[in-house]
Amino acid sequence: MGNYGSCFTSKETEAFPVETRFKLPSPLPSWPQGESFASGTIDLGGLEVCQVTSFKRIWSTSQIGSNDTDVTVFEPSPLPDGFSLLGCYCQSNDTPLFGWILAGKDVSGGTLVNPVDYTLVWSSNDSCYIWLPTPPEGYKSVGYAITTSPEKPSLDKIRCVRADLTEEPETDALLWGSDGVSVYGLRPKVRGRQAQGVSVGTFIIVKDGDDSSLLSLSCLKNNNFDKSTSFLPNVAQINALVQEYSPRFFFHPKETYLPASTTWYFTNGVQLYHTGEESNPIPVESTGSNLPQGGSNDGTYWLDLPVDETERERVKKGDLQNGEAYIHVKPMLGATFTDLAIWLFYPFNGPSTAKFGLVDIPLGRIGEHIGDWEHVTLRISNFDGLLYRVYFAQHSGGTWVDTPSLEFLDMSNRFAAYPSLNGHATYPTPGVVMQGTDVIGIRNDAAKSDKFLDVKDKYLVMAAEYTSDVIEPPWVNYARKWGPKITYEIGTEIEKLENSLTGIVGSAIGSLLDIIPTEFSSEDGPTGPKMKPEWDGDER
Question: Where is this region: Disordered (predicted)?
């Protein structure tokens, strides 16, 4: 874990983790020279914003009865000279303080104005009052003002933003809820590498039965998006970020099916098949230069392992020694953040194991397929180059983990990632994660071993569309399958297991049909990273 320093003195007798400020284990380096990446401010088109990470504590829900879901609200303080308050910050009490809020400066005239009034959104025990600014016509509010007394804030306390610099929001993670009131994070509704919506870092209060709550606040919009490449990291800075933050993937000690580089995969007997010419597959060039380029996955081409059974089994196991990570770099949240999506390729995804009570049940071929692309994504601030979150992809979904909750390595700012046994879903900590229930489900086992891949030592930046300095390898634009599709009736496979088992275990196996992900219903090779929704969009 990282370091923690005191950030305020609590009025409560019980100390909460939020009362200490999180610091990375190691000081950040000076980033290589570039244009405006990590320069501290970003121009959204006449509205300059900065990311404030120092706060003044306003109030905590623990003052009205402490529980495991308490939160604290903060006001950014101090604000840099010339910048105005746009909103306040809210965070769970059970994690160290680690957040940000945007402040704004009008650099063109008319982008920021005072509200004309306030509406009380919520109050509690005469100790916290949350106010929605009333914007003048043509402007919108992007955050709340908060007081500890019932008097309205002064009109110059906070600023409203010109409407053309705002975007429609949606709720993010639930932060707190009580008595028909819920507090959520707020993010742009449309997100992706070409989307202009910008998170302010604030929160929204939603009351049960009040569908108008989300209409009260907006996110920001980067009207300068087409000119924002200067705020994104150049190649030297990308490499520095990889060296500073990239994970070490620890594979399970029993893992048989390890990753490999695409070059190794192509040069070890893998062949390209084409519909109608199945008897005449062709070897793949080491860079994938003879793979069909572009288009879509029309099912007419696919890759497959060597025909020779001995070679086939050898290639399935991958080649960790020469393994390599592949990195896609893209702007996110209106180019205020950069995502480093780090992909690993596995020649084979192994079979699944079910768990019923204390009994483990191998599921035969269920879960197997040739070719497996898995990833984690690092979300890094373009204001200062700080890592804020990591996404761990897991089957058809995944989990965002804030930086303070990462397992850091050797007092560095790099962290551990744990691909699961056979299935390669990636987790932030070792252990067993069940898909299903605590009684019956699919096991995802993750553990540390001496089998690992350090991304900082073995990686290729495979794509960064915003700069011509990154050339995509030919295989990136191969839109078809990286393995054949072999369909089978999953119900038939389950029935075979039921017939092979006795007693209560056998009778319970049928319930797995409701638990097993749909992608397990066939041996179906995946498409490559560029064909995934998260290539252009946000993580799921």
Answer: 519-540
User: How far is it, in rounded angstroms, from Cα 241 to Cα 228?
Assistant: 19
Transcribe 152-204 into DSSP letters: PPPTTSS-EEEGGGEE-EEEEEEEEEETTEEEEEEEESS-BTT--EE--S-EE
Say how many C-beta atoms besides its own lie within 10 A of residue 492's C-beta. 8
Q: How many helices (H) and strands (E) does the chain have?
A: 6, 40
Cβ-contact 248, 452 below 8 angstroms: yes
- Residue that is written with structure tokens 């794509």 in the block: 463
Tens digit of pLDDT for each residue in 108-150? 999 999 999 999 999 987 789 999 999 999 999 999 999 999 9
463: β partners: 328
Q: Is 265 helix (H, G, I), strand (E, B) or coil?
A: helix
Q: pLDDT tens across 303-327, in order?
A: 999 999 999 999 999 999 999 999 9
Per the structure block, which two tokens stand in for 330?
A: 């893209």
444: nearest Cα among 511, 360, 514, 519: 360
**Closest by CA position to 45, among listed 233, 229, 226:** 226
pLDDT band at 210 (very low <50, low <70, confident <90, very high): confident
Distant-in-sequence, close-in-space partners of 214: CB < 8 Å, separation ≥ 6: 169, 170, 171, 204, 206
Q: Which residue has the tokens 């150049």?
A: 234
The single residue listed with the structure tokens 């606040």 is 217
Residue-level pLDDT at 46: 97
**What percent helix, strand, coil does the chain show, rounded to 5?**
15, 40, 45
> Do residues 12 and 18 lie in contact, with contact meaning Cβ atoms separated by under 8 Å?
no
E strand map for 219-293:
219-221, 248-250, 271-274, 282-283
Asked if 346 contacts 359 with a C-beta cutoff of 8 angstroms, the reply is no
Q: Give the amino acid at 466.
A: Y
**Distance, CA of 57 to CA of 73 (rounded, Å):** 6
pLDDT at 65: 60
**By C-alpha distance, which of 359, 345, 310, 288 is closest to 502?**
359
Which is it for strands 160-162 and 139-140: parallel, antiparallel or unpaired? antiparallel
CA distances from residue 386 to 53, 262, 265 in whole angstroms, order as listed: 11, 31, 35
Please state, in angstroms and rounded to a whole number, the distance separating the CA atoms of residues 274 and 404.
Answer: 48
- The answer to whether 219 and 229 are in contact (CB under 8 A) is no
Start-to-end CA distance of the chain, whole Å, equals: 26
Whether 205 contacts 180, CB under 8 Å:
no
Buried b / exposed e over 287-315, threshold 16 CB at 10 Å, is ebeebeeeeeeeeebbbbbbeeeeebebb
Per-residue tokens: 364 = 């035969």
* Cα–Cα distance measured from residue 455 to residue 239, given in angstroms and rounded to the nearest whole number: 11
Assigned token pair, 63? 């003052």
Task: Tell me the two tokens of residue 400.
Answer: 């965002």
d(CA 430, CA 449) in angstroms, rounded, equals: 10
Give one DSSP letter per residue of 475-487, joined into a string.
GGGB-SBSS-EEE
